[in-house]
Amino acid sequence: MLVVLSIALMVVDARFTLLKPVRGQMSLVLMQSYLITDVPQRLWQGVASQFGSRTELIAENEKLKTEALLLQGRLQKLAALTEQNVRLRELLNSSALVNEKVEVAELIGVDPNPFTHRILINKGERDGVVLGQPVLDARGLMGQVVELMPYTARVLLLTDTTHSIPVQVNRNGLRAIASGTGNPERLELRHVADTADIKEGDLLVSSGLGQRFPAGYPVATVREVIHDSGQPFAIVRAVPTAALNRSRYMLLVFSDSRTPEQRANDAAQAQEAADRQSQAATPDAHGAPAAVPGAATPAAAPATPVKPGVTPAPAHAPAAAPVAPVAPVTPAAAATPSRETH
User: Fold this and answer.
1) Is the Cβ–Cβ distance between 264 and 95 less than 8 Å?
2) Buried b vs exposed e over 26-61: b needs ≥16 C-beta within 10 Å?
3) Is the dihedral of CA 54, 58, 63, 65 positive or negative?
4) 124 and which of 6, 73, 151, 182 could share a cystine (Cβ 3.0–4.6 Å)?
């Protein structure tokens, strides 16, 4: 009876969604068991860190200082490249590429099925995780979220046979599709032309096509390219850059959720605002700020005071009218600049 009941539950769970709420509630109970089983590992790590040798700590400290210095030098170059990228996008009237928001998650379980590559992390729907959210570690992309629970989530790794990701060769921008093979150490590029410019050692990065994975993250490194004269496509095998079977901590990427139309509209509005500000700040030929379309025209400057004994000219005097004699100018008056002078 138990065997029949187990088979019935597996069939219902595989073909229907009736047990999905039950699975979500059971995850709350299983979460406590995961925490309990992880206690010995945490205790061992705490004891090992307390009794680490002083020599190892000093050597590790020196190594970290060297790496920090190298990373700071690269960061300075990266800041300059980022500013250059922003300026080029402004010239192309394109929206700026903002940095994605990330959140750290921890691995708490691995799917025991040898034919699927899935892991369980300690962040779920209550933490803002969404379906299809990209997951990466310190080396590159790992996969995407395929199942949500209140406090946990399942991640489908890149090497699963049902997973594919659009990539491009970082060297020349050649686009391709990287598919999982069921081997945690290998990906394959499908339908790559035999004459395509791709070679061993090329870095494959995410292309951003499909609006699922952000562009520019490392995915794999080409290990082998096999050309067969009798086949129209080459056989390209690659190794994932992420440590899929070793990483314990990973990052959840919160990308820009706006649609392409919304991003284009926001970019156009930002460009119009920048144009208005540049017009307002640009001086005209006389040194005064240029008039902004739609802005109010400033009132005319007051007329110069008329000295006693001088008859003021009419406001609309004809061009051929004789000029009235001007009274002698005193030194004090000569030192005072006229209000009409720009």
Assistant:
1) yes
2) ebeebbeeeeeeeeeeeeeeeeeeeeeeeeeeeeee
3) positive
4) 151
What is the per-residue pLDDT across 89-118, written as a single tens digit (0 to 9) for each?
A: 665 554 444 456 788 899 999 998 888 999
Residue 120: closest CA among 38, 239, 46, 219: 38
Other Cβ atoms closer than 10 A to 183: 14
Whose CA is closest to 27, among 156, 151, 154?
A: 151
Per-residue pLDDT of 230-287, as tens digits, reads 888 999 999 999 999 888 888 898 866 555 566 667 767 777 877 787 777 665 545 5
Instruction: Give the tens place of pLDDT for each residue, 279-307.
Output: 776 655 455 444 444 444 444 444 444 44
Distance CA 248, CA 109 (A): 10
* Closest among 197, 195, 199 to 232, alpha carbons compared: 195
Read off the tokens for 216: 């520019």
Using an 8 Å Cβ cutoff, are 189 and 166 in contact? no
Q: Tell me the pairing of strands 233-240 and 118-121.
A: unpaired
